[in-house]
Design a protein that fits this description.
about 325 residues, alpha/beta, 6-stranded mixed beta sheet, 4-stranded antiparallel beta sheet, 10 helices, 14 strands, about 30% helix, globular, disordered C terminus
Length: about 325
């Protein structure tokens, strides 16, 4: 099997054929977005030397981040690494101590809040408890940044909200109040609100944390489709396999600092996973999708790394073994 990383288009074509369940009710590209543009190499989001501390605890220490139009950047790292703090700083929820953030080339702290909301949407890790509103009413709130001060929602706004709910498969409980929904359902409703906002930049904090495996795949496939149509996405993701499969670039954080960044195969090496997460792992190509895959073996201090039976062992940069599994060897991974 070829060891090269499949292109974004290859991954998307294969995902369309292999994803579990039915296709989304409507292609993501049917949903218009504010200021759609073809991808270029200028940063849509750029953070430089961001630092943030609380009670003498340094949560971010001179962190740089760059994301372009048409790029999906994944933030990975152990608990407390600074992923959520970085997302909240970029979205202006937190006032960072030092550094700078630019959206579309403009300094974040000089932009009116309304203009920031037109450009950027944040889906938090824990959906806020919003009592009394129906799911549709919450999604429709995503239209507020594009409305005048005394303007009310019109048919176009309703249509955008309805399409966002179809894309996230939340239209079946549009009339239910949020307190009657499960955690995963609420999370998808808040994603629908962010999509209805029609942002240029979408920030997601653990977007799959409350979702079943089917909706994990569907939600990240949807984000991937939006990115391929020009959106910039930055997401904190704990699942390394999902991060490797869907993201163009990964930024690995630990103790509030960037440890390394780059394409998934450069970041997710057996050596790096052991050094940052304290876990020994086998790294290989997943035969069904061609995506990079990680099999966690044991805590680093107690495990011996052994290749799955019938697999090809390659040297990681450290000289420790990384595993490139042949298609016939996958069943041997434990």
């Amino acid at each position: 099997m070829s060891k090269h990383r499949p292109s974004v288009s290859d991954r998307n074509n294969h995902a369309a054929e292999q994803r579990a369940g039915e296709a989304w009710p409507e292609d993501a590209r049917d949903l218009p977005r504010q200021g759609q543009a073809k991808p270029d190499h200028s940063p849509t989001v750029e953070a430089k030397a961001l630092s943030f501390s609380v009670n003498a605890k340094q949560l971010l220490d001179s962190v740089d981040l760059r994301a372009e139009s048409g790029q999906f950047v994944g933030l990975i790292g152990p608990n407390g690494a600074g992923k959520t703090t970085l997302l909240r700083s970029i979205s202006n929820v937190l006032s960072y101590d030092q550094g700078s953030v630019r959206l579309l080339g403009e300094e974040l702290d000089k932009l009116p809040a309304r203009h920031v909301a037109e450009i950027l949407a944040l889906v938090p890790q824990i959906a806020p408890y919003t009592q009394g509103f129906t799911a549709f009413e919450l999604v429709l709130m995503g239209r507020y940044p594009h409305m005048g001060r005394f303007q009310v929602e019109g048919k176009e706004d309703d249509g955008i909200a309805e399409r966002a709910m179809r894309l996230t498969e939340t239209e079946s409980f549009a009339t239910r109040t949020l307190e009657t929904l499960s955690g995963g359902e609420r999370q998808r409703v808040f994603l629908a609100r962010a999509i209805a906002q029609q942002p240029r930049v979408l920030l997601l904090d653990e977007p799959t944390s409350n979702l079943d495996v089917l909706h994990q795949l569907k939600i990240l496939t949807l984000v991937r489709e939006l990115v391929d149509d020009g959106l910039t996405a930055v997401a904190a993701i704990h699942d390394l396999n999902l991060a490797a499969r869907f993201c163009d670039r990964l930024v690995l954080l630990a103790d509030g600092e960037v440890q390394t960044e780059g394409v998934p195969e450069d970041v997710l090496t057996a050596e790096t996973i052991e050094a940052v997460f304290g876990v020994e792992a086998a790294v290989y190509r997943e035969p069904a999708t061609g995506a990079l895959a990680i099999s966690l073996i044991a805590a680093a201090e107690s495990a011996d790394v052994e290749a799955p039976v019938g697999s090809e062992v390659m040297e990681a940069p450290s000289g420790k073994p990384a595993v490139a599994a042949r298609s016939e060897a996958t069943s041997g991974i434990r």
